[in-house]
Amino acid sequence: MNRIPIREVQETLAGVLLKLGMSAKRAQICARLFAETTRDGVYTHGINRFPRFVRTIQNGSVDVKAEARRVSGFGALERWDGLRGPGNLNALTAMERAIRLSREHGIGCVALGNTNHWMRAGTYGWQAAEAGMIGICWTNTMPNLPPWGGAEPVIGNNPLVLAVPRESGPVVLDMAMSQFSYGTLESYRKKGEMLPMDGGFDEAGNLTRNPGAIEKSWRPLPVGYWKGSGLSVVLDMIAAMMTLGKATHELSRDPLFEAGISQMFLAINPAAFGPAPRSAEIADEIVASLHVSKPAKEGGKVRYPGEQTLRVRAENEKLGLPVEPAEWQQILAM
Question: Three-class SS of residue 182?
Fold first, then answer.
């Protein structure tokens, strides 16, 4: 594993995007989002995901020159068309608009349709929380998860993010509707490790901890069984209805052509009622209650969502981003 300074990674990725026709400013932002995702420890959707992103540009699924635009609105609610532009840039724009609306109305909601994969879902929760807002966002995806009681993937693992601002470190929950995301399955498979618990079904319909078997069957386990399955369906419905865009069943099952997806971005302003120091105290008290609770294992620690991210971020900023030599050589060759 190589360690490369984050600035070098960003400049390298931006150089590739420039060659693909992206403007200099947007290439820097897009590259920064990929680099920061690896910096924060989400390796499956950072630098490692970049080659696939390039392929979606080359096959026409992603239009590097397209920028999301507002098509309609009513007060704090707006509908935007992503025009199949780069998913992470579209999502960044949509959450920024939701934040601006929340400063004016107390709440802001942007429904973004006809967009592409947004890479790390948590990016936009951190974006909202670091702006002092409560952030909620989700996306639908290609069919890659079986509904409860079903034997084929017809719903999406539809990542959901909930973020809470906090001065000493935002609380950010970033979760897919599958017990283990496909990125996590891939990571365990490449390391030759079994999952810590059952994560899906093999081709014979048996529960398994074998990540490769689950990837092959396309039958990961919905989080909370029927509850995760139901939540996936409802999130898909809301996103498609609000954007008037595509629902999961209308999307390609080929990850290289997963285009035209639907997403929702909400920002809620805790200060809308005026100065609220008690609001910040509540978040801190909840975190404190977790930290003093008894861990399941001797010497263990109970953490809040996003706490590990802050530790990994600091380590990678100091030492450089961990990059597989083969992946880096592939990017350099671009």
Answer: helix
Query: Distance (Å, rounded) from C-alpha 37 to C-alpha 34?
Result: 5
Q: What is the spatial distance between Cα 106 and Cα 126, in angstroms, rounded to a whole number?
A: 19
Helix (H, G, I), strand (E, B) or coil at 261: strand
Instruction: Report the alpha-carbon distance of residue 195 to residue 272 in Å, rounded.
Output: 44
Residues 260-269 have pLDDT tens digits of: 999 999 999 9
Q: Confidence class of residue 279 from pLDDT cuts 50, 70 and 90?
A: confident
**C-alpha angle 256/218/254, rounded to 5°?**
15
Q: CA 14 to CA 19: how far, in whole Å?
A: 9
Q: What is the pTM of this model?
A: 0.95
Distance CA 123, CA 109 (A): 17
Candidate list 45, 117, 249, 291, residue with the active-site label:
45
Q: Does the CA dihedral 55-60-65-69 come out positive or negative?
A: negative
Strand 107-116 relative to strand 259-268, pairing: antiparallel
- Which residue type occupies 275? P
146 DSSP 8-state letter: P
249 is annotated as an active-site residue: no
